[in-house]
Amino acid sequence: MRTFLFSAAIAAALIPAAASAQRDPAYQAARQQGLVGEQPDGYLGIVGSATPELRALVNNINIQRKKQYTDQAASGSTVEQMAFVTGCNLIARTAAGEKYRAPDGRWLTRGSEAPVRDPRCL
Hints:
The protein is an alpha+beta fold. The protein is built from four helices and four strands. The longest helix is centred in the middle third of the chain and has 22 residues, at 52-73.
């Protein structure tokens, strides 16, 4: 539990860097159109079918995220712990109208209420 809480603190620090690095116009457009969404595993997912351009965009973002998780995991957590905690936080920060993956695997659209997250999320 102590490692998990430590991971949560580190992952919270990752959010601003991850979000700012990924807010390019193509990413923003895909997000607003509901083509991509946040996943509990900390990676961006494609909602529905993908064009090669969308797949390349998502792959690039996920490579950047994995690098951040790997860099931070050296501080005492695993890459998977860092990714999960960051995924919890990124889902919590989705805006109304944006897509996210619920714990049961369904893609949901965020409304005005809090998103459905894994019960292990803090």
